TrEMBL record:
Keywords annotated in UniProt: Catecholamine metabolism, Cytoplasm, Transferase
Organism domain of life: Eukaryota
Keyword Transferase (UniProt): yes
Record flagged with keyword Transferase: yes
Pfam families in UniProt: Sulfotransfer_1 (PF00685)
One annotated Gene Ontology cellular component of this protein: cytoplasm
Group of enzyme by EC: transferase
Subcellular location: Cytoplasm
Molecular function via GO: sulfotransferase activity
Domain Sulfotransferase: residue ranges: 22-265
Full protein name: Sulfotransferase
UniProt family annotation: Belongs to the sulfotransferase 1 family.
PANTHER family membership: SULFOTRANSFERASE SULT (PTHR11783)
Native source species: Erpetoichthys calabaricus
Amino acid sequence: MCSLRTVLLELCISKKFQAKADDILIATYPKAGTTWMIEIMDSIRQGGITKEITTIPSHELSFCFGVSSGVDLLKDMPSPRLVKTHLPFQLVPQSFWDKGCKVIYVARNAKDILVSYFFFHKITPILPHAGTWDDFFESFLSGNVVWGSWFDHVTGWWDVREKHQILYVFYEDILQDPMREVERVARFLGHTLDNGTIQEIVKHTSFNMMKDNPMTNFSRMPTCIVDVRISPFMRKGQVGDWKNHFTVAQNQRFEEEYRRRMAKTSLRFRTEL
Ligand code: A3P
C-alpha cells in the first residue's frame, strides 16, 4: 500500500490517468495555498488530527527521483485518493469529469502570488532561473512562467465551476475566517464535523503551526528540490505582502494589465484584508 497522502498529477503523466469516482482533486495555480488546503482536506477526511496527519509529509517525493510516476503511485494509493494538480482546467484528464469527481480549486490574488512565486524560484533549483525581481514581474504578467498565465488559470477554472463539482475557495477567505471555510470544505466533501474538531483543524493548519511542522514545511525535501535553508517555504502567509515589493510604477503597470485581462470576468480578488 502506498503511504503517500497526496500525489501530484502532471501533464506528462496525466494522459494515462484514469480517475475513480471518489477521487478528490485539489487544483491551484502555484503558491495559492496548495499545501495549506491539502492539510485542511486531509484532516477533514481523517475526522481530525490523526497519527497519519502528524507523521506523514503532506507533499510527496514522487517526481523528485524519477523512480515512479504519479500515475503508478496513484494505482497503489487507497481510496479515496487525494490528487493535486497545477494544471489549467482544459488539461485535466477527461476521466475526472466523466466520473463526476469533486474538485477544490484554491485561488489567491495575483499580487501576493507573484511575490511568493518569485521567492519560491530562489529555493527551488529545478525551476528556471527567475532573474531579477523586475524580470520576474514582467515574465509573470506576460504568462511566461512555469504553469503559464495566472489570469487564464483562475478565470478558466472560475468559468466551469458550476458545470462540475467544483468548490472555488479563496486564500484570502481562509485566512480571514478559517472556521467558516474549513466547515465549507468539509460540507462539500460530505463530512459533518463537530465544532471542536473544526477548531482543532483550524489550529493545526494555522500558519505558525504549519511553519514549524516538518510534515508541512518542506524541511524534509531534498535540498536539490526545495532548499528551505535559503528561504522558508512557509514564508509570510499573509495577504498584502506585495506592498513590500511592488514599486509604485509596478503597481500601476500591474493594475492596467489586470483591468485589461480581467475585464470580462465576474471573478473578484482581494489584495488586502
Ligand atoms: P507566502 O510565500 O506568501 O508566504 P503553495 O502551497 O501553493 O505553494 O503556497 C505556498 C504559500 O501559501 C506560501 O505563501 C505559504 O506561506 C502560504 N501558506 C501555507 N500554509 C499557510 C497557512 N497555514 N496559512 C497561511 N498561508 C499559508
